[in-house]
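Lecture 7 notes: from sequence to structure.

We start with a single chain of 139 residues. Read the sequence below before looking at the structure.
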Amino acid sequence: MGFMDNVNAFTKGVSQKAKGNYDIVAMNTKISSMQKEISNLYKGLGAAYYQAHKENPDEALKNFVDAISSLEQQIADTQEQINTTKAETAAVSLVAESTINTAPAQTDLGHGFCSNCGSPLSADSMFCINCGTKISNEE
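Now the structure, written as tokens:
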């Protein structure tokens, strides 16, 4: 075998190895995709079972059904807290906006608020630490 034959054999071997590696990656990707599909089917199966049997689950699955029901109640409670907080925050933001749109107010410590964002300022502030606005020393 001559030098060129050796080069050709080597090149053919590298090519076959690369194709084999590519095929392995493609098959692993296919397996991963099928595993993800199975996982989604398990989720769908569990959701369908839960909806059909949440009032009267099999004894073996009762712990799962109870845990899901408990979490659903916690979600509903938390959503109610979010709605309450949103309502309270909306009321506070209206007060804050009216404060921001007027001249800088003084806190009980004698410090002002940023005229741009309303953040409290220390007496020696040159810039707002929240938004970076230059603070005027004129009152």
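Residues 103-110 have pLDDT under 50 and may be disordered. Keep this in mind for problem set 3.
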